[in-house]
Amino acid sequence: MKLVELKSILRSHSSSFPRFILPDGDQIPAHFHITEVGHIAKRFIDCGGTLHDTTDTCLLQTYVADDVEHRLNAATFAKILQLGDQVLPHNDLDLEVEYDCCVVAQYPIASAKVSGEYLDLHLAGKHTDCLAKEKCGIDGECCGNKEIAETTATASCC
Questions:
Q1: Do residue 87 and residue 156 come from a single domain?
Q2: What pLDDT, in 10s, does the model give residues 6-30?
Q3: Are 9 and 52 contained in the same domain?
Q4: Could you give the angle at which helices 3-12 and 74-84 cross, rounded to 10 degrees?
Q5: Containing domain of residue 155, as a range?
Q6: CA distance linking residue 67 with residue 52, whole number of Å
Q7: Does the predicted model carry a pTM greater than 0.70?
Q8: pLDDT tens-digit map of 92-104
């Protein structure tokens, strides 16, 4: 989901209560705070030596405190995103949510759906991948291909 889409949905449903639905169906506790709106720029080189231009995302950091009565409504969420305009280069950024539950993890926002008084923001999983499979000798899905997984050169990818 793009930042511009989330802003529009929040404005359209300003009295709703956003809920983040994790990929496994669990939810980030309802008393979460949005503590940061960040611009993340990633420029990297893969293991095959290819330089990848910057990918930009908007990262929303959640924090779950002890104040279980805290409930963020869509209008307040929209105001927090508006504050983020100071650091975000544009509104066409992909969105990710950072959540700390034993480890800090980042989840792309896949979709939004109004469900009664709630605005359900469904989060997707993220996975690592080898971007230089041909150069590394990986042909196809590493862990899904028994022959490749058993080779010495690629056994570590599983």
A1: no
A2: 999 999 999 999 999 999 999 999 9
A3: yes
A4: 150
A5: 128-158
A6: 42
A7: yes
A8: 999 999 999 889 9
**Same-domain check for residues 75 and 120:** yes
Q: 148 and 97 in one domain?
A: no
Query: What is the number of other CB atoms lying within 10 angstroms of the CB of residue 80?
Result: 16
- Is 105 buried (19+), middle (13-18) or exposed (0-12) by CB count in 10 A? middle
Tokens of 138: 């990986």
Q: Could you tell me if 63 and 137 lie in one domain?
A: no
The answer to whether residues 48 and 76 belong to one domain is: yes
| Tokens, residue 107 | 């989840």
Q: Are residues 94 and 140 in the same domain?
A: no
Residue 140 has pLDDT above 80, yes or no: no
Overall number of domains in the chain: 2
In this structure, are 79 and 58 located in the same domain? yes
Distance of CA 141 to the CA centre of its chain: 23
> Both ends of the chain: CA-CA distance in Å?
30
Residue 46, pLDDT > 70, answer yes
